[in-house]
Fold:
Amino acid sequence: MLGIGNILWADEGFGVRVVETFHRGYIVPQNVSVLDGGTLGLYLVSFLQLADCLIVFDAIDYGLPPGRLKLVQGNEVPKFTAAKKLSLHQTGFQEVLSAADLLGRCPRELALIGCQPLDLESWGGPLTRPVRAQIAPAIELACELLAQWGSPAKMRTVPLPETERLLANDINYENYER
Amino acid sequence: MRVQTPNGFTTDNSGKRIVVDPLTRIEGHLRVEVNLDADNVICNAVSSGTMWRGIETILRGRDPRDAWAFTERICGVCTGTHALTSVRAVENALGITIPENANSIRNIMQLCLQVHDHLVHFYHLHALDWVDVFSALKADPKATSRLAQSVSPWPRSSPGYFKDLQIRLTKFFDSGQLGPFKNAYWGHPAYKLSPEANLMAVTHYSEALDFQKEIVKIHAVYGGKNPHPNWLVGGVPCAINVDGNGAIGAINMERLNLVSSIIDRSIEFVEQVYLPDIELIGSFYRGWLYGCGLSGRSVMSYGDVPENANDYSTKSLRVPRGVILNGNLREVLPVDHGDPDQIQEFVAHSWYKYPDEFRGLHPWDGITEPNFELGANFKGTRTDIKELDEGGKYSWIKAPRWRGNAVEVGPLARYIIGYAQDKAEFKEPAERLLKALKLPVTALFSTLGRTAARALECQWAAHQMRHFQDKLVAHIKAGDTATADVSKWNPESWPMEAKGYGFTEAPRGALGHWIKIKDRKIDNYQCVVPTTWNGSPRDPKGNIGAFEASLIGTPMADPGKPLEILRTIHSFDPCLACSTHVMSPDGQELASVTVR
Structure:
């Protein structure tokens, strides 16, 4: 489960905030990894090579109204690249996928859970209200996929200790948007 | 109009204008406009781009000890370098020192990033400006094998190996996906490699992509995780417990040995793959020595990688430090980040507002107030600019200057300064490579020289990693396991007001952060990044920046396919911009290109 995007750039942070929130609320089986991929672009290829199935969360320009969530699967995934890429020299995720393919190891199952952003211009800005509202539905969609793929997530019964959160040092979701 | 710039270039904007512009209008992109003379030689260049205006608004009021985590997110390429610069700035402001082991570990982290970034930049972002992937499909695998074995002992060089790669590549293209190879100018006359050299280089493109993931495991060991390793004001966040067996986060013998083996393999890869490739590619392009720009005149390096903890003197810094002006290699001038008269940023040609547009501001007093206005002679509309007017404001990048001088930063600048300081570790490898290519020393001042310096530095950095790893292990064996000094961790121990700076040499050049702390919170924070130096617009006196200077005098084979522009701009490893399209003089779109 890979969240990508730049948390400093308003709705571009959607993907990372979804995996962060998911990790706080759910436990996954041993064979599932939850990764904050940030804007690492091509550097993410090695993580892709390790995965049999991949769920990517990102802000996507589908040309839909802001805040609309859309799931895309399989061969459809590479057609959609992120709405705004400040990633490794602007490497779109599509290129990361084909680089993995070129190396001969690409995930068998691909799913992209994307949200149409409202604001990508505000440097330092928070997630906008319609995009923020899609974090929970995005997690629900991901849980359904995990269950279909035989590795269901479970709600945490004991809260995740602060030291084990995905993001810390004031860039975690609630402190960043204080 | 012909203009003589104070820094020694002649520009002429009367000929036809070529615009290489971002696909989208948003920040983070680079736009380059050039004028061509009747022979299609570039006679004027205008570089326009954006950087992270406003990091200070995000950081104001935050805890200085967390600033590194924010700056690490500025972009995905210089992550660790920004974090290191940030913790150094805070330590400088608050008078915090770090233990020797922390210095060694930080150096290894920084050098690791250097090795990784140089390798990835060359093979995955820059090589395709020199290597024609389609030509590789026509290569004879047997001849490729002979070629490979003649330049390197690297074992993966059999005819069958190259044949396999060729088949994989053909299948990849036949499947309709060009992937990382799309939007390039395959078959362009400025490509010079033989099909066999192309096949070898493309094969190493694929090997490097596979190998780069090994290198960054070092970040996971010392930074606790990767991506986004952890940093700490006062030292490094990893504890050392040599007898431990895998306690979370602690460094034990097993992990030290893992790092050691990755360093060995990195040295081997750089020496047996990257360097021989550079020499081979250089031999085909030894006649293409354009792109000198500022490199032959004014260059700067802040220096980095302190041998001794907390000692940032020129003597302690392993990466050369200083400034060379006007091509005077006999004098390397000292840099002081705290001197308000040295490093200053100007905005006369940038989309910002200063109280006095003709004066520069030192970063401690930096102001970032947007002011988007276009010069009187721009063409198009405010939201759809066809042609910028370099006589007015034309870039989101400020123009940083050192004592009023435009300088080039990056690996080539560092090598020129090391060379001028007569340091054998920089001078000798450069001379060996030049000799092998039968080129004079002045050939270094070029696009090819920039690309070669990066490769030489990658080798140097890999060996320096070994040095600091050995030093770390020796210290640990002697019983020193300290990795952090937390005596000033508590904000109660800080003064009510403080200011400081931190600097590093990022893979692409000099990086500085300046911080002001008030009431134990961040009051002002300014980053001056390498691409601000290299990609800067003109300053109030009319000095052109490094990108602009480097393009002047370059002939273009086909103005509609600006491969030469991409090649030279990429040789700086710019940290912005990439999706671009090419516009003809009348604004009609000619072609699309993804700049990498």
